[in-house]
Design brief:
By secondary structure, the chain is of the alpha+beta class. The protein has 11 helices and 9 strands. The structure holds coenzyme a persulfide. Coenzyme a persulfide binds next to helix 7 and helix 11.
Length: about 375
């Protein structure tokens, strides 16, 4: 996208966040749902199609541009990002990265408009961090696969029109090599949803189990057409997703710092605004340093990703740095607000709970550390 059009898009999103999303945050928290009219406005703005190439009806943003837009969107409650998150990110990108031309033509245009919501189904009751141990089976019968298994904590499953599903097509291969990625339309017979999960935070973002009971999926729905490649597809999707989550953490840092500053300048104790006290200034400064460090690594990693460099170590480093940083920023925000920080009406306690998930999903901090260290050891060997 040319710079001028992109600036226009960013300004439009910024206004939408200020005028529509932030004022609706309390309602989303109360109702545990993003209002339908806001979802429609997100469709109208093209937000579901940020990462779909223009040839397939999307905006075709680069990773750097996508990260900048997601940063704007996540200056509001993360529940809004969640509406588009799986369709822009992990749910669609398997098709974009590894899909056949026919798969792209069939699915991407409807994902780009938001007509179809995509979900990513990797995690299982007994396969979380150890994704390669997943047990969902896909057994070839004629020209279809019969799929059985349960997927857990699947974001947007209640709204999904399709799942990018990882299942074991080769029972003889225990680890990553036996796994294939499938495009599974959500209306196939045999698919059912568990009850919605009750969570620590992120009210308005929906997750639940998805149960596959003798679901027949055409063999032509294997992403890229070749069985056994699904784990690698999932890893490539997650690498990219980790830049996206870095942007989510950064947007939340921006918001929390703005709230902390405003409160510190207005709240008076000992006859002065608490922002004049050096111990409060130290907390503000530490949060600014965290924000600047995340911003620098995000911009550098996204730019190198766009240049086609191999950056999986950096993707993990960014996800790790950004999500731990926003945890610290949220904790300081609660501290700066003092007693008010613990009270629901001041909102920072909600952000504090919301951002806790960022250090866990799409690969825990500990998984990122092991990915980074393994890459270092490989390079040194
Ligand atoms: N890009 C491309 N290919 C990759 C890759 C990447 N980033 N990471 C791994 N692979 C490939 C490897 O090259 C290897 O292929 P070969 O067998 O041909 O060499 C294969 O995938 C298996 O890799 P590896 O042996 O490293 O896999 P492990 O089972 O050790 O697991 C981790 C790797 C732990 C990194 C992986 O399971 C993981 O990311 N877990 C976290 C899962 C997660 O994020 N879950 C969140 C829920 S989904 S929102």
């Amino acid at each position: 996208m040319d710079a001028e059009t992109f600036d226009l898009l960013r300004d439009t999103v910024r206004r939408f966040v200020e005028e529509r999303l932030i004022p609706a945050e309390d309602q989303v928290d109360r109702d545990d749902k993003v209002p339908d009219e806001i979802v429609q406005e997100m469709r109208d703005l093209g937000l579901f199609g940020l990462s779909v190439p223009e040839d397939y009806g999307g905006l075709g943003l680069t990773m750097s541009e996508e990260a900048a837009i997601i940063r704007e969107v996540t200056r509001a409650s993360v529940a809004f990002r969640s509406v588009i998150g799986t369709t822009v990110g992990i749910g669609s990108q398997g098709i974009v990265i590894d899909g056949t031309e026919a798969q792209k033509r069939e699915w991407l245009p409807r994902l780009a408009t938001g007509e179809v919501v995509a979900s990513f189904a990797l995690t299982e009751p007994e396969a979380g961090s150890d994704a390669a141990s997943l047990r969902t089976t896909a057994v070839l019968e004629g020209d279809s696969y019969r799929i059985n298994g349960t997927k857990r904590y699947i974001t947007n499953a209640p709204y999904a029109g399709m799942f990018t599903l990882m299942a074991r097509t080769d029972a003889g291969v225990k680890g990553a090599g036996g796994i294939s990625a499938f495009i599974v339309p959500a209306d196939l017979p045999g698919i059912s949803l568990g009850v919605p999960d009750r969570k620590m935070g992120q009210r308005g973002a929906k997750t639940c189990d998805v149960i596959f009971d003798d679901v027949l999926v055409p063999a032509a729905n294997i992403i890229g057409g070749v069985p056994g490649q699904g784990f690698k597809t999932a890893m490539k999707v997650l690498d990219r997703g980790r830049i996206h989550i870095g942007a989510v953490a950064l947007g939340q840092c921006d918001r929390l710092i703005a709230m902390s500053l405003a409160y510190a300048m207005e709240r008076k104790q000992f006859g002065d605004a608490i922002a004049t006290f050096q111990l409060v200034q130290a907390m503000l400064a530490d949060s600014k340093v965290d924000q600047l460090a995340v911003e620098a690594l995000m911009n550098a990693t996204a730019a190198r990703f766009d240049a086609g460099e191999k950056v999986n170590l950096e993707c993990s480093a960014l996800k790790y740095l950004a999500t731990e940083a926003v945890g610290r920023v949220a904790d300081r925000a609660v501290q700066i607000f003092g007693g008010a920080g613990y009270m629901t009406e001041y909102k920072v306690e909600r952000f504090y709970r919301d951002v806790r998930l960022l250090r866990i999903y799409e690969g825990t901090s500990q998984i990122q550390q092991t990915i980074i260290a393994k890459a270092m050891l490989r390079a040194a060997a």
